[in-house]
Design goal:
Layout: H1 6-14, H2 22-39, H3 43-52, H4 59-76, H5 80-88, H6 96-113, H7 117-125, H8 133-146, H9 151-161, H10 167-191
Helix pairs in contact: 1-2, 2-3, 2-4, 3-4, 4-5, 4-6, 5-6, 6-7, 6-8, 7-8, 8-9, 9-10
Length: 193
Amino acid sequence: MTELTIDQEIEQLKKITRQDGDDQYAQALYELAWIYQFEKKDIEQAEYYFKLIEKNDDPQAYALAQCQLGTIYQFYKKDIEKAEYYYRLVEKNDNRQAYALAQFELGQIFQNHKKDIEQAEYYYQLVEENVNKKIFALAQFNLGIIHSDDPKLASKYYLQVCDSEEPWLANWANQKLGNIAYFSKIDTDLQSP
């Protein structure tokens, strides 16, 4: 069996219509968008195909598409308002992985762009550990940063990250915990008679 070229694969996927079934059509659109975004580096075409996926076609593919649209607007088009709009369309019941990523990215938007720490904290806390451990660890790390003025609370969040399967992130959290312990000791020493 010969392997299809990217262009042949695109042509095969374009032949799939709603008559082939809503879920099969949604999957074909998602694959087309993915190919255009990551293989062809054509963001406009990727956006076009992601936008064609409807929720009633396949809720999981729709949630993934909305998350990818958020990513396109956040990182490629630098349109934070549109990115926020698409991330908010991702519902937990449709795709828990996409939901976790969307909540994390909403936290990033509110923390880094809108400077609304309360909203950022709200979204980071919606990321569940049992859904995506990496995204959960990143959210916990950012919660530690948000609460850097409260060593006890920051430590609680950094400790959640120390068990991360991402060694670089666990090391970073351990470094933050070491800093908290060091500076807490200095504060204690300074307050002693």
